[in-house]
Give the backbone structure.
Amino acid sequence: MATEIPIIMIREIAYTYPNGTEALKNINLNIFKGELVAIMGKNGAGKTSLIRTLNGLIIPTQGNIYIDNESISSKSIATLSKKVGIIFQNPFHQLFSNSVEEEIKFSLKSFVLDKEEIQIRINKILHEFNLEKYRKRSPLNLSGGESKKLAIASIICRDPEILVFDEPTLGQDAKEIEFFINLIKNERKRGKTIIIITHNIEFAYEYLPRTILMTDGQIIADGPTKEILNNEILIQQTSLILPQIWQFRSALKENNFPKTGDILSKNALISYIRNYLKNKSLKI
Amino acid sequence: MDLIKFENFYYRYKGNEEYALNNINLKIEDNKFILLCGETGSGKTTLIRCMNGLIPQFYAGFYKGKVEFWNGKNTVETPIADLSTEIGIVFQNPENQLIAMNVEHEIAFGLENLGVPVKEISKRIKESASITEIEHILDKAPFELSGGEQQRVAIASILVLEPKILILDEPTALLDPYMANKIINLLNEIKSEKNISILISEHRLDLILPFSQQIILIKNGSIIEHGYSEQVINGINFQTLRLNKPVIYSIFSTLKKENLYNKNIPASIPEAVRSLK
């Protein structure tokens, strides 16, 4: 790992919006090929601004970004977006075609492909995302979950090396979250680098090995997710809401339940209560 | 009192052969906190659209049966404009329902259209801005606001009409957990201060279950269960639906299966701690 060049190298970038808001302050960051990284922090911490710098939607007011060891400052959004696919939080900010099929077709437009190849790719992606039955439907007439799926499909079909998701699990039900988890597992197997902005601590804890914690335009922590998320001081600084497991652990502690310190996962909590109940019934 | 009553109601959208709603019989009572729960595509939004006449008056489609209100009005004959003052609906994306140049005008808009006297308007704006904690942003433009603020403005602009029921379709879907929690707590305050009914469809069950008194479960366009929260979450229907169940639900249902725990599955953490003592 030490000698490898990061696929994304961010050096001392800062960004100030025209209205004077400092969204990013002196950010330094390395992300290696094949990594799966969470970016967490409260609203307004600079998470979305940071990912927007990766495909040129925001040009930093200072500093440099290198992707594949090349500076991106002179590259167009069109070129960069073949390498970095960003899936935004609100799918309707990126869907605009008349039908589901047209949406994917548009996405493939900038690649030099013949008609047949395009059709093959469209069919493949619609099949993978289970959207075939909506082929002719307007994206506006899809449910919330389906439109999110289409937004992801329209980026995945371009096969970018780096995938960036902004709040992919927000407003999704259990079935859709499961679909998304399988999707990132598959993309990772194919060697993709994946960055996910999320507020979902439980999801990050379980599936995303590295976490970058942001507050106030700065990175305040970067490391293994489990270490970062078990640091209550850090979590409080970012006003993330603690997962129910930890809330439950604190509540047990406050109510003088013995030895609650080791409860770090759902299974640990189940075995804790299991033992507690068994002991209790013995006493009776 | 039943605020809304569905009787043998069916609906399908134009162009679709399948019915989005199948034989709905449902009574929404006054002064209740009700959670509408179902997987994506199960018909939650369609059901909500039927509650203030958007269906059948705005969306093209075919219906059978009827939806009536406590005051004898119904969704076919009464114009949406009339219904919307009594049945307030807040949708997922506040951007779609905010139209005015500043927040104060946004909240005043509905009342001005109804010809409410100016004095009464400013009194009601003050009251609804205070309960939703948006007094400090009354002169801002809606597009300048954060998602959480926009959603509170959307709620204020409905509350000001003094509806009998406030219906919210995934109001926190675009918000972070911190804001989502704030909105849900706010709804609970509104419910107890105004004594109105709240009906909400929401994916964040860990946040909402501690407050809900009743749950409606919907699957493939049919209501499969409607009852008190405690009964519903302890039932088989809730268990089999693929919802984002809270961690405490899965912990206690595991223990129940092992016969180590035989009380009701708790809906909140304090309840869970109490049940173990």
